[in-house]
């Protein structure tokens, strides 16, 4: 093939604006308006890449989205691992390399093109500018409708009030209710459009179908329509001496067009007259073409370009993915939309099978050797491969697809699908159209993950990091943070060169011996209001909340329908008809949803409303023997004495000059005041508390402190299979109060089993040995041959600074009966001997909580 | 602005970024969540809109329809207590829930000409003027954060949770950076 640019012509290119680019290390020039494929052809580049399996040279076969042969990697200006050369607009500084049908992601993360998302709402979305698009646009615009036209190619003009045209844009998929996702390729930035349309009109046109013959993959074999496109749009004559191989009238004008452009027509092999192309010769590009006639006569002609048209397939892939079907059309020898599909979708023009040239049903030129009759170029699969699959017993095209991978490449079988189906039908002796091509699924064309990500990348935007009102203070303190759900929470507050262990030890001892401060603002908080608030909470929690006095607090469990612990928290009774309940940090949204679900679907008669107030309140938890001193020091009008302000009550007043609900709850067993203040005042109160000398502590110390007291964390000790009784907290279930969610499951035989896993603490015999969280518990120091009997698992494991030893919490089969026994925590080939004890390893008498 | 020197508004440190976006902070906006049967709307101290996703407002107060029995009452800084009292008094004889949620969301007002274009990159709602006009409100998502939008003449107040507020500002900044020059 001696591709060349004609001295004039080319409606899309601007010859006054040359553009430099590099292909496989060669500096080349094209014009503005060129695609990479037209520029390569203009430069006489025959071979774009090698085929992925057989390594055969491959050139350009199409001018569009159906390309199955010429693929490149883009390295500049932006990285793209693999893309069809026909889909790349020529831009200055473009650097590409031929790439076999499989892309490669380099390790050094080259920059991807910036991208963002955008939402659009229109009455009418028109996809493509195939036949019938313009009347649809004009009609909609005349109604005053908003119209969006999406066109893959770089130029399309449409005007009118409310009409917007996106060029260089491809609809990737259609979804329920007129939702379409569109990828717009901009010069500097890509946009992923989310379009909601009242009506969608598919004007996607039709794709030309090839015919299989010997060495039909050789550079110089091209779809006839593409030859015309390169000539008319780009002023490029892809070959000087052309053989036209056709089954239909769409090629009728091509020979004249080629001659006018200075080309020669070596032969026209028209299937309808009994002529066909049998094969091609030479390496790498076509130099001779073998023809076969109606009587089997053979001719060979000198030629450097075979322009092939095996008929046209309506491009109805987008409709098939949303329920549209296909039917075989004998006259067109292809599959056309069958009219099924959603009522908001209309297919017009050639995409609907209208106005296409009738075609002879001809799929490949018969031959003894079919092993180079390529059907799917990008998968290197031939007619022989299809026949082998059928010979092997496969009948469904879906199975043949899985066996050969035909249709699974980037082009999703746009050129190969009908061929493969009809070769299978014929091989089985079935009639034409007995089964059609395999389905195509979104995305219609490959889309880089970076485009799907849009702006959701980088540390700030990948996923929101929720911060508390006190966050800035923690940052100033040099806190080390951890993710808790979406929240960023201080894990520990290192002083100078402290590591995690040293900081946690200091923070724990501060709470045990003096006073510490924890930012507990992330606790979920829900205000439950209404005359039936008490009844409602009695049904949602295992214990009775209705007999709680205003000013009191109760800890509660919430169960799933299966009786398993789902969430925990405390309920503060604010008034006769008003509670504030707290949830776990990660459970806030799920618990509110659950409240609403039960209120709306099961108990609509209850007069209760639930309002999320998680972020209304900042919570500063002051704990330790010095907690009373700290709160008094920052100033309060609340009487803090244990006699008038006992454990599990709350008082309203002011603290450090701001309104506050002071709560006597503790997650570590020491005297504790949780200060609930407006989140606007969170920073003020935190700073005041810390200024007294209270030691800021993070989630890591919080974990140690609560574990020393045997306080569970839902989601750490529990995993959805744990009942309150398993946790040794059967007391929290009040079966006499009436029904509550999960109650009936607590009397199932399995729930009542004596030997369920139960919460225990483990004290390693070696006071410094730290079991690994998640370790399995076994009954011997030496592991027997598998299967090893598993007795339970370690859920939490820490070094306790106050006990000066390690300890762990674990779920152990029949654990309460095993107190005093030894079990071994097994991990990484080692076992650690541990004594089984009651889960509370520190201050089991609760002697410290009043200070 | 509240007189309380101990209070800090979320986003108080982001004034320059907000200006870049074309937005300004509305600190300490009073916000009260009201749940009441809509048949009692007539005895409310403020006109409660009954058409979904619409809002009433005067110079000082606003009432946003959030659901069939839920409204958000907005007022000037420090007015939450007064709004709560007015609602509790008006609905004293019927079931209702009145909760001060002033600090539960922070408000920024988008004021730039192209603010709805800006939002179209991060918000799935139809914000075309033929659908979204002054007097409309909605609960929606900005990127991955929940938000309440309110449309007024020349300004679009946006209410988000304080924990998400910096994320929302970062997101709008990124959009502003990517689209600067577009639509200007």
Task: Please provide a written account of the structure.
The complex is a heterodimer of chains A (851) and B (184). Chain A has 851 residues and is α+β, with helices and mostly antiparallel strands. Among the domains of chain A are: 4-98, 2Fe-2S iron-sulphur cluster binding domain, sarcosine oxidase, alpha subunit, N-terminal domain (Ubiquitin-like (UB roll), Roll); 471-521 and 617-706, Probable tRNA modification gtpase trme, domain 1 (Gyrase A, domain 2, 2-Layer Sandwich), CATH 3.30.1360.120; 524-612, Alpha-Beta Plaits; 752-851, Aminomethyltransferase beta-barrel domains (Elongation Factor Tu (Ef-tu), domain 3, Beta Barrel), CATH 2.40.30. Chain A contains 17 helices and 48 strands. The radius of gyration of chain A is 37 Å and the shape is elongated. The mean pLDDT of chain A is 95. Chain B has helices spanning 15-21, 80-90, 115-120, 162-179; strands at 23-26, 30-36, 55-57, 62-67, 70-75, 96-100, 106-110, 137-142, 145-150, 156-160. Chain B is globular and about 55 Å long. Chain B contains four helices and ten strands; from the N terminus they run H-E-E-E-E-E-H-E-E-H-E-E-E-H. Chain B has 184 residues and is an alpha+beta fold. In chain B, the strands form two sheets. Chain B has a five-stranded antiparallel beta sheet with strand order 1-7-10-9-8. In chain B, strands 3-4-5-2-6 form a five-stranded antiparallel beta sheet, covered by helices on one side. Chains A and B meet through strand 9 and strand 37 of A and strand 6 and helix 4 of B.
The CATH class of chain B is identified as Alpha Beta
Structural class of chain B: alpha+beta
**Given the C-alpha coordinates, what overall shape of chain A results?**
elongated
Greatest contact pair? A-B, 46 and 48 residues
Could you tell me how far the N terminus lies from the C terminus of chain A, measured between alpha carbons in angstroms? 93 Å
- Compute the number of helices of chain A: 17
- Helix/strand class of chain A: alpha+beta
Largest sheet of chain B: 5 strands, antiparallel
């Amino acid at each position: 093939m001696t591709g060349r640019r004609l001295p004039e012509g080319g409606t899309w290119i601007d010859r006054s604006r040359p553009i430099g680019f590099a292909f496989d290390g060669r500096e080349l020039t094209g014009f503005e308006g060129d695609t990479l494929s037209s520029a390569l052809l203009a430069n006489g580049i025959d071979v774009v890449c090698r085929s992925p399996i057989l390594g055969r040279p491959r050139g350009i076969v199409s001018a569009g989205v159906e390309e199955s042969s010429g693929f490149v990697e883009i390295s500049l200006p932006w990285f793209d691992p693999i893309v069809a050369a026909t889909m790349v607009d020529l831009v200055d500084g473009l650097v590409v390399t031929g790439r076999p049908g499989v892309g490669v992601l380099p390790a050094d993360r080259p920059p991807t093109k910036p991208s963002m998302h955008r939402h659009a709402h229109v009455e009418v979305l028109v996809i493509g500018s195939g036949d019938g698009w313009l009347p649809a646009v004009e009609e909609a615009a005349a109604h005053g409708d908003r119209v969006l036209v999406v066109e893959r190619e770089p130029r399309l003009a449409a005007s009118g009030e409310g009409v917007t045209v996106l060029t260089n844009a491809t609809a990737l998929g259609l979804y329920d209710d007129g939702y379409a996702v569109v990828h717009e390729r901009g010069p500097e930035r890509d946009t992923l459009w989310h379009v909601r349309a009242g009506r969608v009109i598919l004007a996607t046109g039709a794709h030309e179908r090839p015919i299989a013959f010997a060495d039909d993959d050789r550079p110089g074999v091209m779809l006839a329509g593409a030859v015309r496109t390169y000539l008319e749009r780009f002023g490029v004559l892809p070959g000087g001496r052309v053989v036209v191989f056709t089954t239909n009238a769409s090629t009728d004008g091509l020979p004249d067009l080629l001659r006018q452009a200075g080309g020669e027509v070596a032969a026209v092999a028209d299937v309808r007259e009994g002529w066909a192309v049998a094969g091609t010769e030479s390496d790498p590009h076509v130099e001779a073409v073998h023809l076969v006639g109606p009587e089997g006569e053979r001719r060979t002609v000198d030629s450097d370009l075979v322009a092939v048209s095996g008929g046209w397939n309506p491009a109805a892939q987008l409709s098939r993915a949303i329920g549209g079907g296909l039917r075989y059309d004998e006259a067109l020898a292809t599959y056309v939309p069958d009219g099924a599909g959603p009522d908001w979708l209309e297919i017009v023009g050639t995409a609907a099978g209208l106005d296409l040239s009738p075609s002879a049903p001809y799929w490949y030129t018969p031959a003894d050797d079919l092993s180079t009759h390529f059907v799917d170029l990008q998968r290197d699969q031939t007619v022989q491969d299809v026949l082998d699959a059928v010979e092997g017993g496969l009948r469904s095209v879906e199975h043949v697809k899985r066996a050969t991978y035909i249709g699974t490449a980037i082009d999703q079988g746009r050129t190969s699908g009908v061929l493969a189906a009809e070769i299978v039908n014929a091989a089985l002796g079935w009639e034409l159209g007995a089964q059609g091509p395999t389905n195509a699924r979104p995305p219609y064309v490959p889309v880089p993950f970076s485009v799907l990500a849009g702006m959701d990348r980088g540390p700030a935007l990948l996923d929101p990091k929720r911060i508390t009102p006190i966050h800035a203070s923690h940052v100033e303190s040099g806190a080390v943070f951890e993710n808790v759900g979406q929240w960023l929470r201080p894990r520990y507050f290192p002083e100078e060169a402290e590591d995690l262990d040293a900081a946690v030890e200091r923070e724990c001892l501060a709470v045990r011996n003096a006073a510490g401060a924890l930012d507990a603002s992330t606790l979920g908080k829900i205000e439950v209001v209404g005359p039936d608030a008490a009844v409602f909470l009695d049904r949602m929690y295992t214990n009775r909340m209705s007999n709680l006095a205003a000013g009191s607090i109760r800890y509660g469990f919430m169960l799933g329908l299966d009786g398993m612990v789902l969430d925990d928290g405390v309920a503060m009774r604010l008034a006769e008809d008003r509670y504030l309940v707290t949830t776990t940090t990660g459970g806030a949204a799920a618990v509110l949803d659950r409240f609403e679900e039960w209120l709306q679907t099961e108990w609509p008669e209850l007069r209760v409303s639930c309002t999320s107030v998680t972020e209304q309140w900042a919570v500063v938890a002051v704990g330790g023997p010095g907690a009373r001193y700290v709160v008094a020091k920052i100033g309060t009008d609340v009487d803090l004495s244990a006699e008038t302000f006992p454990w599990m009550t709350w008082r309203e007043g002011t603290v450090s000059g701001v309104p506050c609900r002071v709560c006597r709850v503790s997650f570590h067993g020491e005297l504790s005041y949780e200060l609930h203040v407006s989140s606007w005042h969170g920073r003020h109160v935190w700073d005041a508390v810390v200024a007294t000398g209270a030691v800021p502590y993070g989630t890591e110390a919080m974990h140690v402190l609560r574990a020393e007291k045997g306080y569970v964390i839902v989601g750490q000790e529990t995993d959805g299979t744990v009942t309150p009784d398993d946790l040794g907290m059967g007391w929290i279930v009040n079966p006499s109060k009436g029904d509550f969610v999960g109650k009936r499951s607590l009397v199932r035989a399995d729930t009542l089993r004596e030997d369920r896993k139960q919460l225990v603490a483990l004290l390693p015999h070696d006071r410094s040995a730290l079991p690994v969280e998640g370790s399995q518990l076994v009954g011997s120091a030496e592991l027997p041959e598998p299967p090893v009997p598993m007795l339970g698992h370690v859920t939490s494991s820490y070094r306790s600074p106050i006990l000066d030893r390690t300890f762990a919490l674990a779920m152990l089969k029949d654990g309460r009966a095993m107190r005093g026994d030894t079990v071994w925590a097994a991990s990484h080939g080692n076992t650690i001997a541990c004594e089984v004890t009651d889960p509370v390893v520190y201050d089991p008498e609760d002697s410290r909580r009043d200070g | 602005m509240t007189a309380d020197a101990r209070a800090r508004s979320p986003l108080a440190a982001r004034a320059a970024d907000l200006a870049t976006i074309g937005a300004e902070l509305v600190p300490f906006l009073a916000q009260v969540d009201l749940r009441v049967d809509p048949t009692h709307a007539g005895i409310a101290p403020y006109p409660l809109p009954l058409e979904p996703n619409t809002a009433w407002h005067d110079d000082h107060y606003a009432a946003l329809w959030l659901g069939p029995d839920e409204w958000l009452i907005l007022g000037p800084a420090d007015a939450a207590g007064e709004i709560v009292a007015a609602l509790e008094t008006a609905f004293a004889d019927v079931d209702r829930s009145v909760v001060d949620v002033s600090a539960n969301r922070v408000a920024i007002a988008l004021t730039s000409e192209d603010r709805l274009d800006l939002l179209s990159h991060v918000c799935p709602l139809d914000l075309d003027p033929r659908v979204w006009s002054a007097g409309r409100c909605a609960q929606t998502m900005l990127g991955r954060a929940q938000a309440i939008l309110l449309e007024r003449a020349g300004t679009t107040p946006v209410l988000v949770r304080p924990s998400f507020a910096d994320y929302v500002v970062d997101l709008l900044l990124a959009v502003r950076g990517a689209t600067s020059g577009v639509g200007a």
